Amino acid sequence: MSEASGINTASSIQADYMKLLISQLQNQDPLEPLDNNEMASQLAQFSQLQQIESMNTNFAQVLVSMERSYASSLIGKEVSFLAESESGMQEITGGVVEEVYYDVDGEILLVAGDRTVNLKDVISVKS
What we know:
127 residues
């Protein structure tokens, strides 16, 4: 179990299931054995869950790559975004993207004029 997210992975759930299954097999009543079809079905479900988790991880990696590529394509373009004015109010402002970089958390940041803005905060893009 991942302590940061609190979510079990399919592999950890399957390992726990296998421990439980072994315990059940060791302690089963010989006159009423466990149903093989049910065990096979449950193992197949774990396999499907692992495949879905793998696809989700791969998709997340593709998405990050696409976001980085998109951010790089904004260099030299004028972007608009919400920013805090000197009076503390939110206002739409903009600038030409001069640089793209990634902070320690992996967030994509754009430098436009004298402002640094998160890619997520971009409202519009002009050539």
